[in-house]
Amino acid sequence: MAYLTLNRAKLKENFEFLKKTFTDNDVTWGVVSKLLCGNRLFLQELINLGVKEVHDSRISNLAMVKSLKPEIQTVYIKPVSKRNIGKMVQFADVSLNSELETIRWISQEAVEQGKKHKIIIMVETGDLREGVMGEQLVEFYSQIFQLPSIEVIGLGTNLNCLNGVMPSTDKLIQLSLYKQIIELKFNKKIPWVSAGTSVTIPLMLTQQLPKGINHFRVGETLYFGLDLFEEKVIEGMNGDVFELHAEIIEMQEKPLLPVGNLAANPQGETLEIDESLYGKSSFRAIIDIGLLDVDPKYLIPSDEKYEILGGSSDMLIINLGENPNNYKVGDTLNFDMKYMGALSLLNSNYIDKKVIERLD
């Protein structure tokens, strides 16, 4: 059985690095836990770090967090559907919103549950995902402030999540100005300008973050240590908190090219023949994980001597070349992964999850 490991020591190092960075910049932050897909074991590891605020896009995951530590502030980070508003208000202390009618429904539900629900209004800054258009913002806020059981605690934005628009100092200054306009217009205090996600961290590290930005929502950089501007691991952080371990279930020396008439495989792919490979062979390993669990393009072999050739629903095929490490059936191949690879694996019920200590 393939399994995924979370390295406790490396996760703690990443957390402490970010904690110090945010403290030094007088910025508050919450951890985005959606990558963990509600896994109780891994969520407990987050809580053990001393996390005070958890963000997620699945209500069931926030419910799990509340079951583990009720006093943690939970934040729902996507527009809520009407039928899920009751559960959202029950398990989320804060939510990100951009639809007036939805906020009215949240207000009604919060009144019924006897709660004060906090909201952050999302502002469109160019990536064209969720967010109120800037020219509509004042009128939008004027109606929100009238609603019972709603406390407006901030405005925020998302960048790079859909069309790849990167954060910039200019965009973030614009968001800070929106906050000032709202506060002056309505004589209300807006505590948070929540414009920071993992992709914004490089601006903070290079002292380009405007002073008005005071709240971050961080997932990917915590788990993968990545500078998403440079696509490289930040010095002082770890890129291998997660690792996939998959067992070799067949090992054979086979031709590099298939034999017979070729048609599309079940994934709709048709192999293009490289005639220079005729007559050549290599050692090929089959491992016990497949496309049902993860897209191979998101996996990074820990040993650069082997490559992923492809796979089917339940197996991946690995080219080991001349097999210089003498791998055999029953041995384990290890893989690092990109964010979307880890997300798929964590969402798979067929992959075991384990916590380990530092191995190096």
TrEMBL record:
Coiled coil: none
Residue ranges of domain Alanine racemase N-terminal in the record: 7-225
Cofactor (UniProt): pyridoxal 5'-phosphate
InterPro entries found in the cross-reference section: Ala_racemase, Ala_racemase_N, PLP-binding_barrel
GO terms for cellular component: cytosol
Keyword Isomerase annotated: yes
Pfam families listed in its UniProt record: Ala_racemase_N
The UniProt record lists the keyword Isomerase: yes
Keywords: Isomerase, Pyridoxal phosphate
Single Gene Ontology MF annotation: pyridoxal phosphate binding
Top-level division of the source organism's lineage: Bacteria
PANTHER family hit by this protein: ALANINE RACEMASE (PTHR30511), LYSINE RACEMASE (PTHR30511:SF3)
The protein, known as: Predicted amino acid racemase
Record organism: Algoriphagus aquimarinus
